[in-house]
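> tool_call: predict_assembly(chains=two)
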Amino acid sequence: MNSKKTKQLFTGIGFISPNICGFLVFTLVPLVFSMILAFTNWDLKLHNMFKPENTIQFVGFANFVRLFKDEYFLMYFGNTLFFMMGIPFGIAGSLGAAMLLNNNFRGLNNRVWKMLIVSAILAASLAVLMAVGLKATALTILITTVGGLMLIGGAVGGSTVYRTLFFLPCFTSGVAIFLLWKKMYSPVGPINIALAEPLNNLSKTVNGIEPSTVQIGFWLLFALMLLILAWRFKVINHKWRDAEIDSMSVILPTLFTCIPAYFFSKVSPVESVKWVPLTIAVVLLIACIINWIIKKQDFDSTPWKGHGGMIVGALVFMVAQFICIGLALVIYNLPEMATNGLEAPQWLADYYWAKPAIMIMSLWAGIGSNNMLLYLAGLSNVPPELYEAADIDGASGFQRFSSITWPQLAPVTFFIFIMSIMGGLQGGFATARTMTQGGPAGSTTTLSYYIYTEGFNTGRLGYASAIGWGLFALVFSITIFNWKFGSKYVND
Amino acid sequence: MTKQLNQKEVKLLSKMTKVSFLKTGYIHLVVATIALLFSIPFIWMILASLKTNAEISMTTWIPAKLQWDNYKEVFRVLPYAKFYWNSIFVACWVTFLQVFTSALAAFSFARLKWPGRDKVFLMYLGTMMLPGLVMMIPNYQIMIKFGLVDTMAGLIIPGAFSAFGTFLLRQFMLAIPASLDEAAEIDGATKWQLFWDVILPLCRPGLITLTIFTFLGAYRNLFWPLVMMKTVDKYTLPIGLLFFDSTRGNTTHLMMAAVTMSVIPMILVFVFLQKYLVKGIQLGAVKG
């Protein structure tokens, strides 16, 4: 018996031995090595063959202490978080794309030829329309032809063809595509060429009307932001009172909801309304607490119940509020900017625009990504009986989505969310290296690019390892946090 | 009576199909428009690769005359064929080795019983969580020790082992009924024969999926070649393109030709093998 077990062990080990050797040499040893490295002062500028008198020394936690004091680390961490604000949009886009692709395209399959003719006529008529009515450029004709071809392809091949087209940006994403976008963002690139005329018209229009009229837009967006704020508190209030969420789960979402209001007090161009959002937030919070004390329901409430869902919601609407603030600021300053004529941004060469530029590209590549495929798989697993029942009950499209699709997809969303956060924290190396070299003035340097420059450009191996482990600790703790509190939301 | 009912039915049916026909056509239109919007950068890429450099910054998208020579020019100004060859050479070796070692390990984890197996597997899974970046610095030092910096072997060997591949193939192998193993054992097959003749042919979809994944991963890998390779002639495509950008960044038309040539193989791979890819991506997520 014992010899049989030994034999089993040897066969088992024999089969994994090639893999385990590589695992030891390229994973385990480096792991231990880098952990040791993080506690040394190894710097290739100090410790090299030309300076044999310097020896590598253990410096204890000095690298980690330095990490906390390093203002660059904080700045690059901030950059990383800024880039991650695009994640909710990417996920929402993926979900939307998946729902579009999940439609039944097969309905026309027995009429392939009919559809072919229809789309051919469509393409031809569009082309003629463009040629006659609009500027008869070769480009419009080309674009319509390509679009018509896609339609025909879709009519014949169904959703597979569309899925391929949606997925291509993500699939080809890499150095080549980053370089393509770098060229598109160049000051003489197609984007700025296309923007020149609309911006010119816009500045003419803005100059033509009173500044105070334009600034109505600022007040509208300001009101919208306040509405979102109030609405978030209404949601928190209801769920808290009805014990749908635990008291502990109120803290972080409330905080997230209030951050934009605080931010507004810093950047508000109108001095008199500076503190209005934050005051409203505090008042509403107090109202929520009073309401909870008076009317709270005595249902069972497990600690941290509903935490994940609330946080996701709060984050999404926090980003929405930030967008409101940003747009409001732009509109407020528009008349002044337009006096000299508006110009398209310098994108990658501009300190403030470099990050949004990269985020736009990531969104383009991120909508039709793996997440879309996961959502597609998730959608095909939703039992059709649920939709049939909803149809019988006369549910509207939004109700179908909010009470069937979204809850049914919660596990998928949760998984995608966690993976995106993990990826987001560690991401940004390839884009920074290819498109901006981390610049201008470090505005696109993420933590991963910082590790690269520290480790391979400046040669501070010890410190680079410490940053790496700091990043890992961050990723790990966030993931654990998500699993612990988010999975409850999913399983509810 | 029946006739009337049939007529009613037919009417209803035709109405329904009419609606769905219209609706389907409408959705087709929406989806095709979005797909078109997504492909605009690709359209610009191809058009720009056929322009002269002066035409790039003009407002017209369509080149006055298609400059097919740009593609030839890329091969003249850069060792582009070398980059291609290096990329494919490295990707092929990495794929072959990684699929092979992963299949062996996956077989051991999925079909063999030995003490401590599950613990070892958990350890494997755990390493998938570790940040690759942390390991890059020590790995580079190891490569210096082995004298593998700036060699093809230095690119290939670290890529030959993968916890993800092991995990993916294990998923596929677990789906194969266990009775096959017993049958093979009764027939007197050794474990190797079981692996080679029974299990491997049966998890062919998994092998193909992993092959595509690994190949593409190696084909577009940026970090490791960037760190490792010093000689231009040994560059792979991604760092070759970076090199292009830093040395001749102002020749946009040539660069777009180079970019087009590096993207098109990927598009072809996806179009022909997407069945396996999509399945693999969806399976890879099951671990969650």
